[in-house]
C-alpha cells in the first residue's frame, strides 16, 4: 500500500450522525504527538518514520508536531530528544526519571497519560513494536479513547478527524477507522510501513520538561535483569536492503537452503511466507507480511510465493520486486517489477552461482582489467 499520491480520505459511508459535536472537555486538544521509543539507549527507527508521517498530518491540520521522550536521566535520553528534532519535531516533551530506565507498563502509562492530560494532544502515534503495542493499549484504556492498531495509512479527513486505515477480515479488506468523539485519536504503525523521512541538521527547538510524580515503591513490577534474545536479534528483515524469501512453491524444508545460499551470496537477509512458519520450516521472526515483518528493501526476491494480499502488504514498499514462480497467473506478477516464470528449485542455484561469480573479488579484478 503506497502512501504516496494518496487521495485525502473521504468520510466513511454512514458517518453522518455518528459524529456529534466534540464534548467541551476535548475542544482544546491540539497538535500531533509521536512517542519516541527508547529501549536500552536506542531510539527505534519506527519513531522517525512516524515523525515523517506526523509532519504531514500536523501540516494539514496547521498544528505543531511534538516528540515525547520518556527515559532515565542521561545522555541517551537527551540524544533521543535531539534526534526527534532532526527528524522534524517542532517541540519535544521529555520526562526523565530513573524509574523510566527499563520499559514497564505501569510507570510509562502513568507518565504518558499525565502528559496527555496536561498538554492535550489531538493525535498520538506510537510504533506497533512490542513495547509500543503494550503502551498504546493501556494508555488508550486509561484515557478511555479509541486506538487503531497496525495502521497502513494515516490521513486527516475534511473535518480534521484522523482517518486511520488498517487491514481487516484477515487482511483481505482495508477499513478506515475514526475516533470521532474522544481525544486523543490514537494509532500504532508497524516499522517500515511509512517511509523514513530525511534527517536534517535542524537545531534543537522548544523542550518542555515534565516532572514525574511517581516513586519506585509505588510500582508493582521490578526489572531484575536483562537477558538478550540472541536468536531473534539475528533477523533484521525490516531494515535490510536486500531480502530473499521462499514460499510453499519450494516444496520441502530442505529447499530453503537454496534461498539462504542466494541470500548469503548477495549479502541479503532471508525470509519466508507464513505457511513455512506454520510448518516449522522457518522461525516466526523470518515471516514477511501482514502478520510478520513489513520490509522496505531496495531489492526483494520472492521464490515460490504466490503473492497473497497478506504477503503483498508486507513487501510492496520494496523498490524492486523480483518474483520467481512457475505459474504465470500467480498474483505476485501483478505487483512484481520483474517476473521470472520458471522452477525456483532449478533457477535459484543458477542465480546464486551467477551472483557468486560476478561478485567474487577475482571476477571483479577481471572485470576491471
Ligand atoms: C489473518 C491472516 C494473516 C496472514 N498473514 C500472512 C503473512 O504475514 N505472510 C504471508 O506470507 N502470508 C500470510 N497469510 C497467508 C496468505 O493468505 C497465503 O496463504 C500465503 O502467503 C501463501 O503462501 P505461499 O505463497 O508461500 O504459498 P502458496 O499460496 O501455496 O503459493 C505457492 C506458489 O509457488 C508457486 N510454485 C509452485 N512450485 C514452484 C516452483 N517449483 N518454483 C517456483 N514457484 C513455484 C505456485 O505457483 C504458487 O504461486 C495470512 C493469512 C491470514 C488469513
UniProtKB/TrEMBL annotation:
<dbReference type="InterPro" id="IPR033947">
    <property type="entry name" value="ETF_alpha_N"/>
</dbReference>
<dbReference type="GO" id="GO:0009055">
    <property type="term" value="F:electron transfer activity"/>
</dbReference>
<keyword id="KW-0249">Electron transport</keyword>
<dbReference type="InterPro" id="IPR014731">
    <property type="entry name" value="ETF_asu_C"/>
</dbReference>
<dbReference type="InterPro" id="IPR014729">
    <property type="entry name" value="Rossmann-like_a/b/a_fold"/>
</dbReference>
<feature type="binding site">
    <location>
        <begin position="273"/>
        <end position="274"/>
    </location>
    <ligand>
        <name>FAD</name>
    </ligand>
</feature>
<dbReference type="Pfam" id="PF00766">
    <property type="entry name" value="ETF_alpha"/>
</dbReference>
<dbReference type="GO" id="GO:0050660">
    <property type="term" value="F:flavin adenine dinucleotide binding"/>
</dbReference>
<dbReference type="InterPro" id="IPR014730">
    <property type="entry name" value="ETF_a/b_N"/>
</dbReference>
<feature type="domain" description="Electron transfer flavoprotein alpha/beta-subunit N-terminal">
    <location>
        <begin position="32"/>
        <end position="223"/>
    </location>
</feature>
<dbReference type="InterPro" id="IPR029035">
    <property type="entry name" value="DHS-like_NAD/FAD-binding_dom"/>
</dbReference>
<keyword id="KW-0285">Flavoprotein</keyword>
<dbReference type="InterPro" id="IPR018206">
    <property type="entry name" value="ETF_asu_C_CS"/>
</dbReference>
<protein>
    <submittedName>
        <fullName>Electron transfer flavoprotein subunit alpha/FixB family protein</fullName>
    </submittedName>
</protein>
<dbReference type="InterPro" id="IPR001308">
    <property type="entry name" value="ETF_a/FixB"/>
</dbReference>
<feature type="binding site">
    <location>
        <begin position="287"/>
        <end position="291"/>
    </location>
    <ligand>
        <name>FAD</name>
    </ligand>
</feature>
<comment type="similarity">
    <text>Belongs to the ETF alpha-subunit/FixB family.</text>
</comment>
<keyword id="KW-0813">Transport</keyword>
<keyword id="KW-0274">FAD</keyword>
<keyword id="KW-0614">Plasmid</keyword>
<dbReference type="GO" id="GO:0033539">
    <property type="term" value="P:fatty acid beta-oxidation using acyl-CoA dehydrogenase"/>
</dbReference>
<feature type="binding site">
    <location>
        <begin position="304"/>
        <end position="311"/>
    </location>
    <ligand>
        <name>FAD</name>
    </ligand>
</feature>
<dbReference type="Pfam" id="PF01012">
    <property type="entry name" value="ETF"/>
</dbReference>
<feature type="binding site">
    <location>
        <position position="325"/>
    </location>
    <ligand>
        <name>FAD</name>
    </ligand>
</feature>
Amino acid at each position: 500500500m503506497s502512501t504516496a499520491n494518496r487521495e485525502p480520505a473521504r468520510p466513511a459511508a454512514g458517518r453522518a450522525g455518528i459524529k456529534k459535536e466534540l464534548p467541551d472537555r476535548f475542544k482544546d486538544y491540539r497538535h500531533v504527538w509521536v512517542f519516541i521509543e527508547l529501549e536500552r539507549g536506542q531510539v527505534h527507527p519506527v519513531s522517525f518514520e512516524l515523525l515523517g508521517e506526523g509532519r504531514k498530518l500536523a501540516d494539514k491540520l496547521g498544528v505543531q508536531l511534538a516528540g515525547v521522550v520518556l527515559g532515565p536521566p542521561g545522555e541517551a535520553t537527551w540524544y533521543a530528544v535531539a534526534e526527534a528534532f532532526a527528524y522534524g519535531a517542532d517541540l519535544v516533551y521529555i520526562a526523565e526519571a530513573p524509574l523510566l530506565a527499563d520499559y514497564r507498563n505501569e510507570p510509562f502509562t502513568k507518565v504518558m497519560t499525565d502528559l496527555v492530560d496536561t498538554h492535550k494532544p489531538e493525535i498520538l502515534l506510537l510504533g506497533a513494536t512490542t513495547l509500543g503495542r503494550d503502551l498504546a493499549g493501556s494508555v488508550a484504556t486509561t484515557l478511555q479513547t479509541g486506538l487503531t492498531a497496525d495502521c497502513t495509512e494515516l490521513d486527516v479527513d475534511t473535518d480534521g478527524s484522523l482517518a486511520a486505515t488498517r487491514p481487516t477480515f484477515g487482511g483481505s479488506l482495508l477499513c478506515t477507522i475514526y475516533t470521532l468523539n474522544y481525544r486523543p485519536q490514537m494509532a500504532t504503525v508497524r516499522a517500515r510501513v511509512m517511509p523514513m523521512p530525511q534527517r536534517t541538521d535542524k537545531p534543537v527547538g522548544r523542550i518542555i520538561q515534565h516532572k514525574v510524580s511517581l516513586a519506585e515503591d509505588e510500582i508493582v513490577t521490578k526489572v531484575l535483569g536483562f537477558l538478550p534474545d540472541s536468536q531473534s536479534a539475528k533477523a533484521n528483515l525490516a531494515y535490510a536492503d536486500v531480502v530473499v524469501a521462499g514460499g510453499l512453491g519450494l516444496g520441502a524444508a530442505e529447499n530453503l537452503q537454496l534461498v539462504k545460499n542466494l541470500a548469503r551470496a548477495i549479502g541479503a537477509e532471508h525470509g519466508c511466507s507464513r505457511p513455512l512458519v506454520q510448518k516449522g520450516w522457518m522461525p516466526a521472526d523470518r515471516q514477511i507480511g501482514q502478520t510478520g515483518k513489513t520490509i522496505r528493501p531496495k531489492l526483494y526476491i520472492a521464490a515460490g510465493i504466490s503473492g497473497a494480499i497478506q504477503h503483498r502488504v508486507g513487501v510492496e514498499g520494496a523498490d524492486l520486486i523480483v518474483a520467481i514462480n512457475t505459474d504465470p497467473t500467480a498474483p505476485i506478477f501483478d505487483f512484481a517489477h520483474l517476473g521470472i516464470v520458471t522452477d525456483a528449485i532449478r533457477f535459484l542455484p543458477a542465480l546464486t552461482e551467477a551472483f557468486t561469480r560476478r561478485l567474487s573479488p577475482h571476477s571483479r579484478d577481471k572485470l576491471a582489467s
